[in-house]
User: Fold this.
Amino acid sequence: MEWYWALILMMGGFVFFLILGLPVAFSFMIVNIIGAWIFLGGHAGEMQMVRNAGVAVTTFVLIPILLFVFMGEVLFQTGVAIKAVDAIDRLITKIPGRLSIVAIVSGTIFAALSGSSAANTALLGSTLMPEMRNRGYHPSMAMGPILGAGGLAVLIPPSGLAVLLASLGELSVSDLLIAGIVPGFMMAGMYFAYVIGMCYLKPELAPAYDIEDAPLWERLKPFLIYVVPLFSLFLIVVGSILAGLASPTESAALGALGSIIIALCYRSLNWRNLKIALLETGKTTVLILFIASASITFSQILLFSGATQGLLNIVTVMDLTPSMLVVSMLVVLFFLGCFMDPVSMMLITLPFYIPLAKAAGIDLVWFALLMLIMLEVSFTTPPFGLILFVMKAIAPPDISLKDVCFAALPFVAMALFTVAILFFFPEVALWLPGTLKDP
Assistant:
């Protein structure tokens, strides 16, 4: 069979099963079973698929995903995260678009704690949206900052998606996590400036209202009690990696333990919410491991069928420059983001993108970071962006999905602008990992 027929069979089969309504993991598994039988030698191919599953679920480098998810779940299920949002709300006073700024600040903080964009969006939306609506905020200014800040969890460590991307692409997990810090906070700064600027030019987007004039200490005290201790988790997780004291897995374990200790100190942890946190962590982790095991076999089938080499040959013949190649791959990701979830996009493109990037001499950490931002964009790209539906679920009934999509557009544009900055100035992303390697 020619390599292009193999590619059509695998990709077309995956899309076909998705259209039928099967979950991503099951769609990949069914396609893998068919492909393994045809291209990997029948029964021997199916046995190889089983061995791949064993390798995936015992891969040490994937453990941080479980621990990062658990760390965020503990903070959410125990209510510690909600108390922190309330503390930030009390601290920020007279500023244009006050509640939108609260959403961005809170979202940035929890991006450094949860690693989950959906959880980040759900927390901010359920906590801040009701008051925003009561205060007369325009839907775009109420939902947009929450959607933008929610997506930051993809970039700012600890990011489960970054760990998965690095492990599947055989990259340095610590380098990719560290590379996301500067662009993540840079995007948060853009969101901050956009909200203040728009609310200054158009005050009707976020009507001002009187705030209780409490002394500074009374406003600062909740922040010191409920927010500052959470920074210790970020310092433990990221600081231990930056200092070279711990691997990503070890730092994730320290962060998970730290979240339990913090919840105990607030007397918020009990057997019930610990059980819920463990169950939610288990659901997410099983899905990720299921998909990771499918990814290994999928890549092998493409390699043995000749599809990977066939595409490499086409690109070689086209004689694209590295820059043109990167742009074309990012455009494909943007298009896929309109119709697929980030994990599916990653699994489909990585088997081709990483060999292509290596062959073109492209820095893989820089390219993986660009991929991560495009995956973040896919969370808020209509019509199938995941956190668009999360926001729709928690928004008032009179808010349509169209309203949610329009609210997300300026923040999608700022994310794409960040991609452009990193494309033309790669050192913005690479200087921090490079500095740590060459002190």
The CA atoms of residues 264 and 367 lie 41 Å apart. The chain has a mean pLDDT of 84.
